[in-house]
Amino acid sequence: MRKIEVVPYNKDWPFLFQKETSLIKSIFGHEIVEIYHIGSTSVVGLKAKPIIDILPVVKDIDKVDDFNRKMIEIGYEPKGENGIAGRRFFHKGGDNRTHHVHIFEKGDANIKRHVAFTKFLNAHPVIANQYGELKEQLAKNFTYDPEAYSKGKDQFVKKIELDALNWFVNQLN
């Protein structure tokens, strides 16, 4: 059973992201358009589950499954769409997860949603801190209940996502 643990920000997370990005690029090659560090470990100072979330953007999502064997060779478990249409999801580390890879095709709206969320929290440390406190409390209350943990932060995350998308659009203009 997976234990939910929220820890203080680790300054090594960006390095761990870069290290894993190199491996992923070596597998997918020219199929990759860009790669983003997303999720809580990408927000400086934010408490987080110590799992590096990586979002590679690819030219053709249908080609991703052809790379499953190579992803398995570097420790990932392919999970298909795993609840989000148009995504390919992989995780590494079994019950002691270290990395999640969320692959989307260029132009998928989920890319903007994830990138906006990350950039917004990095630009708004007070909100990021509130989010970190909520996650820490939920991890204490629901240490072995990932569904309750996720449900507990759902409303807060949806509000941040909406604010983040509006903010992100304004930043682009």
Automatic annotation (TrEMBL):
Gene3D superfamilies under this entry?
Beta Polymerase, domain 2
Could you name the domain of life of the organism this protein comes from?
Answer: Bacteria
One Pfam entry name: GrpB
The record, for InterPro entries, names: GrpB/CoaE (IPR007344), NT_sf (IPR043519)
Q: What is this protein called?
A: GrpB family protein
Species name for this entry? Pallidibacillus pasinlerensis
